[in-house]
Amino acid sequence: MTTPSPAPWWAELFDGDEASAYQGMGGAVRRPLGRKPAVLVIDVVRAFTGTAGQSLTDAIADFPTSCGPTAWAAMPQVRRVIELAVRKDWPLIYTVAEIGAAGRYGGTVKGDGGAMGSPMDKPGAQDIPKEIAPPEGALVMPKPKASAFFCTSLPSYLLRHGADSLIVTGATTSGCVRATVIDGHSHGFPVFVVEDACFDRARLSHGVNLYEMNAKYADVLTADALEDLAGAEAV
C-alpha cells in the first residue's frame, strides 16, 4: 500500500471554518501536466534576489525590493525546473522588468514608479543570476507590470510554440507570480506552481498565496513532484 504524502506546510495555515470556506473551489483537483508545458521564470533578477550570502537587511539596503535569503534558498529548485525544461524541450521564458515602463503604464506597485524605492534601471537590477543563466533558445521577455501577460507578447509566444499548460517559478509568490498565475488561468491554461522554486519576502505571505492559488487557480507542487509527474506522463 502506498503511503500518502504528508500535507504541505502551507495547507495547515487555515483550519476549521476558515479551511471549510475554501472547500469546493477545486483545491483537491489535480490535472495532467499536458504534452508541452511552458516554463516561466518570473523576475529572478538581482532586484529581487540581492546577492548570495546577504541577510535580508543587507539585501534590501542594496535593493529595497529584494527577498534576500529566501531567493537563494529557492535558486537550486529554480535551476532544476530550468534543466527539466531543457531536457524535455519545453518552451522556457524568463521575465525581467521593462525599463522605462512606469512612464507609460504607471508604477509596478502603488508606492511609486520605481517599485518600493528600488529603481528598476539601477545598475545590475535586471541581471539574471549566473546560477540560472538563460540557456540557448530561452526567451528573455521584459514586462511592464506584475503579470507576464500584461501588454507582452507572451500569449502569442505560447500559441506559436504549442504550449498547453504553464509551470510557474520565481518571484514574488504574492506579487508577480500570483498575477501571472491568475492571468494564465484566465487565458485557459492549466497552471502549475512549483512551491520550492518560488519565493517571497515573508514565509507567511509565501504560504498564504500558495494556499489560495492551489485552492482557486493552480496546482501547487514541489520540484520533486514535478519531475515525477513529467516522467510519469512521458511513459
Number of helices: 9
**Do you know the CATH topology?**
Rossmann fold
Task: Give me the CATH architecture, please.
Answer: 3-Layer(aba) Sandwich
Following the backbone from N to C, one meets helices and strands in this order, namely HEHHHEHEHEHEHEH
Radius of gyration: 17 Å
Oligomeric description of these chains: single chain
Poorly predicted segments: 114-118
Mean pLDDT: 89
Range of helix content = 25-40%
Query: In total, how many domains does the architecture comprise?
Result: 1
Spatial gap, N to C terminus = 22 Å
What does the largest sheet look like? Answer: 6 strands, parallel
Short account of what is shown:
The chain is of the alpha/beta class. The chain contains nine helices and six strands, in the order H-E-H-H-H-E-H-E-H-E-H-E-H-E-H. The chain has helices at 16-20, 46-49, 56-62, 69-88, 101-105, 154-160, 173-186, 203-216, 223-234, and strands at residues 37-42, 92-97, 139-143, 165-171, 191-199, 219-221.
Q: What key attributes describe this structure?
A:
235 residues, alpha/beta, Rossmann fold, 6-stranded parallel β-sheet, 9 helices, globular
Commentary on this structure:
This protein is an alpha/beta fold and 235 residues long. It contains nine helices and six strands; from the N terminus they run αβαααβαβαβαβαβα. The protein has helices at residues 16-20, 46-49, 56-62, 69-88, 101-105, 154-160, 173-186, 203-216, 223-234; strands at 37-42, 92-97, 139-143, 165-171, 191-199, 219-221. The protein has a six-stranded parallel beta sheet with strand order 3-2-1-4-5-6. Helix 7 (173-186) runs parallel beside helix 8. The model is unreliable at 114-118 (pLDDT under 50).
